[in-house]
Amino acid sequence: MDIKEKFGNRLKTLRKEKGLSQEELAEKSGLNRPYISGIEQGKRNVSLEVMEKLAEALGVGIEELVRF
């Protein structure tokens, strides 16, 4: 499993723990749902800016996103 897949799995886990759909996470983060889906599938290489948006939308620190 590569880093993109690990990150995607972690994002999906955190999103579900927060009770959010991909659509809700997309709305809160300012990203679109297909992009969120691509991240969760390990198909997207995520920038630090995107990581920050996702962390803020989930109410966690960036370090939580990379705790695999």
UniProtKB/TrEMBL annotation:
PROSITE patterns: HTH_CROC1. GO terms for molecular function: DNA binding; DNA-binding transcription factor activity. InterPro entries: Cro/C1-type_HTH (IPR001387), Lambda_DNA-bd_dom_sf (IPR010982), TransReg_Diox_bact_type (IPR050807). It comes from the Bacteria. Coiled coil: none annotated. Keywords: DNA-binding. This is Putative transcriptional regulator. GO terms for cellular component: cytosol. It holds the Pfam family HTH_3. Residues 11-65 form the HTH cro/C1-type domain. The keyword DNA damage does not apply. The keyword DNA-binding applies.
